[in-house]
Design brief:
The chain has 356 residues and is α/β, with parallel strands linked by helices. The longest helix is centred in the last third of the chain and has 17 residues. Helix 5 crosses helix 13, helix 9 runs parallel beside helix 10 and helix 11 packs across helix 12. The chain starts with a strand and ends in a 22-residue tail after the last strand. A 6-stranded parallel beta sheet has the order 4-3-5-6-7-13, sandwiched between helices. Strands 9-8-10-11-12-14 form a 6-stranded mixed beta sheet, with helices on both faces. Strands 1-2 form a two-stranded antiparallel sheet. It has 13 helices and 14 strands. A hairpin with a 2-residue loop joins strand 1 and strand 2. It folds into 3 domains: 51 residues, 434 Repressor (Amino-terminal Domain) (Orthogonal Bundle), CATH 1.10.260.40; 125 residues, Rossmann fold; 130 residues, Response regulator (Rossmann fold, 3-Layer(aba) Sandwich), CATH 3.40.50.
Length: 356
């Protein structure tokens, strides 16, 4: 605390200014600006003096002020729910790293269905983010409409609104492949474990799975938990895996639910996986490789997805009025040890995490 004019006031934090650098270096203020502007003309001697003075003072360029002057904030918003879950954390980390490497500033807004969560989305508009990447099915269509009315580019991952650029996941192919795997092994009673969240990705997986199962004449049962997490998997397992149903194979809409289902099936019901029950997940999070699970799953590659998002972002910022960009990513199957082998065949060797 510092005393000033007879009253105690908080000392405000301050940053070293370009003017102070100019004084230390013995050059003009404009010379400092040119030194830190890519492509600007400045003599080698002046540049050396400015850089030395800046280092001694600890000066950092005010990119926020520069962005406001140029009407380019360099801020890129990321909206995501369940940021603590394994795949989402990988997704956020991979995308943040690529954005920083490209000279941009990622801003993460975590979201939920509360009023506070919905209001936080508008922050990205008020701070003039150059674009927003929606990594979650949570943000409402109202936010998408508001952003588009404000002219903010949007890249939606795993959604289906008209207008934004899209990175779509081939959920249908993954779900249908899971049914085919079960059917090829002679299973007639299969299940799906999902949640009541109702995001586009989850809806697509459920619809494709149940449609394919019925086309093949299989008996299919669906159980929904409140959340798409480990506890949701255990709850869904307790409802799905009854003696009356005699479920033979289960597709879980993500790996976390698969882990919960597997632990419940083995620990509470005494089932052997895959001898009594085959299980397939989706995401291929690091824990899927752990010895406790060795889960057969469909791989969402966070690094590959981040590269695709950045490519779409670059294209959109170069061509702001171009037609919406739509990119679709497949989900390779990673075979491990939770699906029983084909009749008359030995168990397939684990392929670990080799699929790309």
């Amino acid at each position: 605390m510092a005393e000033k004019n007879g009253t105690d006031e908080m000392e405000l934090p301050r940053f070293i200014s370009a003017h102070e650098v100019a004084q230390r270096a013995g050059v003009s203020r404009s010379a400092v600006s040119r030194t830190f502007t890519h492509g600007a003309s400045v003599s080698p001697a002046t540049r050396e003096k400015v850089l030395r003075a800046a280092e001694e003072l600890g000066y950092q360029v005010n990119d926020l002020a520069r962005g406001l002057l140029a009407n380019r904030s360099q801020l890129i918003g990321m909206i995501a729910s369940d940021a603590e879950t394994p795949f989402r954390s990988q997704q956020i980390a991979a995308l943040s790293r690529l954005l920083i490497e490209s000279g941009r500033v990622p801003v993460l807004i975590t979201t939920d269905q509360t009023e506070a969560g919905r209001a936080s989305h508008a922050t990205l508009l008020r701070y003039r983010a150059e674009a927003t990447i929606i990594l979650s099915g949570m943000p409402s269509k109202a936010f998408v409409d508001l952003a588009q009315r404000n002219g903010q580019p949007l890249i939606a991952v795993g959604r289906s609104e008209v207008g934004p650029d899209h990175i779509r996941i081939n959920n249908a192919l993954a779900a249908e492949t899971a049914v085919d795997l079960f059917a090829a092994r002679g299973m007639r009673r299969i299940g799906l474990v999902t949640s009541a969240v109702g995001s586009p990705n989850l809806v697509e997986r459920e619809e494709a799975y149940t449609r394919k199962a019925r086309d093949l004449g299989l008996e299919v049962h669906v159980e929904r938990a409140e959340r798409t997490n480990y506890d949701g998997g255990t709850l869904a397992a307790s409802l799905l895996l009854t003696k009356e149903r005699k479920i033979e194979g289960v597709f879980c809409v993500n790996d976390l639910m698969a882990f919960g289902l597997m632990d419940y099936a083995r620990d509470m019901l005494g089932l052997s996986i895959p001898a009594d029950l085959s299980v397939i997940g989706l995401d291929d999070v690091p824990q899927a490789r752990w010895g406790a699970y060795r889960l057969t799953t469909f791989q969402q590659n966070a690094e590959r997805q981040a590269r695709e998002i950045l490519q779409v972002l670059e294209q959109r910022l170069k061509e702001p009025t171009a037609a919406p960009i739509v990119s679709q990513l497949d989900l390779p199957l990673v075979v491990r040890e939770t699906v029983r082998p084909l009749p008359g065949k030995k168990p397939e060797p684990s392929k670990g995490n080799e699929a790309e």
